[in-house]
Write a structure and sequence with these properties.
Keywords: FAD, Flavoprotein, NAD. Belongs to the class-I pyridine nucleotide-disulfide oxidoreductase family. It comes from Aeromicrobium wangtongii. It is a single chain. Helix 3 crosses helix 8. The protein has about 475 residues and is an alpha/beta fold. The strands form five sheets. Strands 1, 2, 3, 4, 5, 6 and 16 form a seven-stranded mixed β-sheet that branches. Strands 17-18-21-20-19 form a five-stranded antiparallel β-sheet, sandwiched between helices. The chain starts with a strand and ends with a helix. It has three domains: about 190 residues, FAD/NAD(P)-binding domain; about 110 residues, FAD/NAD(P)-binding domain (3-Layer(bba) Sandwich), CATH 3.50.50; about 110 residues, FAD/NAD-linked reductase, C-terminal dimerisation domain (Enolase-like, domain 1, 2-Layer Sandwich). It has 16 helices and 21 strands. The protein is globular, with a radius of gyration of 24 Å. The protein binds flavin-adenine dinucleotide (FAD) and nicotinamide-adenine-dinucleotide. Flavin-adenine dinucleotide binds next to helix 1, strand 2, helix 2, helix 3 and strand 4.
Length: about 475
């Protein structure tokens, strides 16, 4: 019989669970991971990778068309079949053999099946033939079960069998007409992708496009979606929907507008994978997000760590920052913390300390691969003000920066930074424009490093690059003395 006792057991082998387990083994402990679907999770097969592959070819084409010389070499349209084939490759053809090899190489034991808490530090793994294997952890159990699409309770919606992000990411063909509900990140990226792939896209949103980013960035993306022919209903919701016998979807919006479409994508946020996880045995409500303390220990209803603190949660399931890279950052923090506690060593949970996931609160990075891209880190002006900070924000026309004019004719974009005036440090940065994705890491370093503005003047951007936006923002903010 194979080993069933491990130092740490991780439930869910998405990007976060994999990284927790890896960190545990690197720290000299043993780890098992339980996965009910594909090792690699949502990100590898139905989210980050395939969706970015769907967007990339159109972005390259736009870039070529923005240059008079290169434009002449573009003689046709996108080869949609080739785009989808490349997307399949980036989803590893929905085969997790490569990721399983990686787990094996990392020394992590894989158990396939549905994992559920079976008692203190115990995890039951239910196989497809209902065989139950009970695993016992010496130190900790980490829940990294992620999230899935939330389907709102709209009459007829469930019967319509709508697409979620999964189907949008893995579709075998492009529908003629695609209606999208939700103007958040998934809705906006998929409107961009499918519109470029030839679908007539309608986007319905309660609160506009990308409501959580800086308004100037959302305005650029909204204008561009309209220009590319997306039919926007930015202040409306879905009242009812049905799919007729021919497969056509009929939507009625709350304002009475009717829309006819071939497919419907629901992109209205996420719900946690915490049902059937045995949480009720611990007095926790199934189906809810897991609340955690600063060391990512799961808290009970009274706000105390479950048991003596043996249960942790990382990644989407704790809702701190639902992004792969932030979840992997949590994985590194919590993995090292569990190792430290197991060895009786001190843990450092001070802000920016080794075991603290401080960036979840202060320096979340995100790139939205819309057209144009949005790259942001830290707090928006609004979020900073709501957090009680005394901030001043400045913006600058990215299209006026020499590097940007060279990058593409007619470059349109904007960038802004939010400065905490009491400490003279940046707490937020946002850029919108073609190919701004790579700008965000410089800002992340400035924010996480709490680099004073006075010192930032000495980080001289090379000429002529888009990064000269840094100099322009500093000049706009003004230099003391
Ligand atoms: C369409 C879309 C595009 C996205 N694009 C990006 C992007 O470009 N960049 C980015 O940073 N983020 C992106 N995200 C977010 C990103 O996918 C998630 O933040 C990330 O996948 C979270 O990782 P996770 O490991 O916490 O959860 P998941 O990736 O959801 O993995 C959880 C794993 O746990 C397994 N599991 C669940 N319950 C059990 C159980 N009881 N027993 C056993 N196994 C279980 C699941 O099968 C799954 O494999 C996107 C999301 C969507 C929907
Ligand atoms: N590039 C990236 O980093 C990337 C890409 C895709 C997804 N993600 C992550 O995945 C997560 C899920 O994304 P999402 O877009 O599903 O969620 P979201 O929370 O970003 O956006 C959901 C949107 O749907 C709207 N909505 C909710 N109910 C509605 C209704 N009944 N009718 C109309 N609109 C409604 C909300 O107001 C919101 O604007 C996010 O955390 C996101 O950060 C990241």
């Amino acid at each position: 019989m194979s080993e069933t006792t491990f130092d740490v057991i991780v439930i869910g082998a998405g990007p976060v669970g994999e990284n927790v387990a890896d960190r545990i083994v690197q720290g000299g402990l043993t780890a098992a991971i339980v996965e009910r679907e594909l090792v690699g999770g949502e990100c590898s097969y139905w989210a980050c990778m395939p969706t970015k592959a769907l967007l990339r070819d159109a972005a390259a084409l736009r870039a070529a068309r923005a240059l008079p010389g290169a434009r002449e070499a573009v003689t046709g349209d996108l080869d949609v079949a080739a785009v989808l084939r490349r997307r399949d490759r980036f989803a590893s053809d929905w085969n997790d053999a490569g990721q399983v090899d990686w787990l094996n190489g990392a020394g992590v034991a894989l158990f396939r099946g549905q994992g559920r808490i079976g008692g203190e530090r115990a995890v039951e793994v239910v196989d497809t033939d209902d065989t139950v294997t009970t695993l016992q952890a010496r130190h900790a159990v980490v829940v990294a079960t992620g999230s899935r699409a939330r389907i709102p309770a709209v009459p007829g919606l469930a019967d319509t069998k709508p697409w979620t992000g999964r189907e949008a990411a893995s579709a075998a063909s492009v529908p003629g007409r695609l209606a999208i509900i939700g103007g958040g990140v998934v809705g906006t990226e998929m409107a961009t992708a499918y519109s470029a792939l030839g679908a007539q896209v309608t986007l319905v949103s309660l609160d506009g496009v990308l409501p959580t980013v800086e308004p100037f960035a959302a305005e650029h993306v909204t204008a561009s979606l309209k220009e590319s022919g997306v039919d926007l209903h930015p202040r409306s919701g879905l009242a009812e929907v049905r799919r007729d016998e021919t497969g056509t979807v009929h939507l009625t919006l709350v304002d009475g507008t009717t829309i006819v479409s071939d497919e419907l994508l629901v992109a209205t946020g996420r719900t946690p994978n915490t049902s059937h996880l045995g949480l009720e045995h611990l007095g926790l409500p199934p189906g809810e997000w897991l609340h955690v303390d600063e060391s990512l220990r799961v808290l009970d209803a009274a706000g105390s760590p479950v048991g003596d603190g043996w249960l942790y949660a990382a990644g989407d399931v704790n809702r701190r920052a639902m992004l792969t890279h932030q979840g992997k950052y949590q994985a590194r923090a919590v993995g090292d913390l569990i190792v430290a506690r197991a060895h009786g060593k001190d843990v450092d949970l001070s802000p920016w300390g080794r075991h603290a996931a401080t960036a979840d609160e202060r320096a979340v990075t995100q790139v939205i691969f819309s057209d144009p891209e949005v790259a942001a880190v830290g707090l928006t002006q609004r979020a900073a003000t709501e957090a009680g900070l005394d901030v001043r924000a400045v913006e600058y026309d990215l299209g006026a920066v020499a590097g940007a004019t060279l990058h593409a004719d007619g470059y349109r974009g904007r960038a802004g930074m939010v400065v905490d005036q009491s400490r003279n440090v940046i707490v937020g940065f946002t850029a919108v424009g073609p190919d701004v994705a790579e700008l965000v890491q410089a800002a992340a370093i400035a924010i996480a490093g709490e680099v004073p503005l006075d010192r930032l003047w000495h980080a001289v951007p090379a000429y002529p690059t888009v990064s000269e936006i840094w100099l322009r923002l500093l000049e706009t903010y003004g230099r003391e003395g």
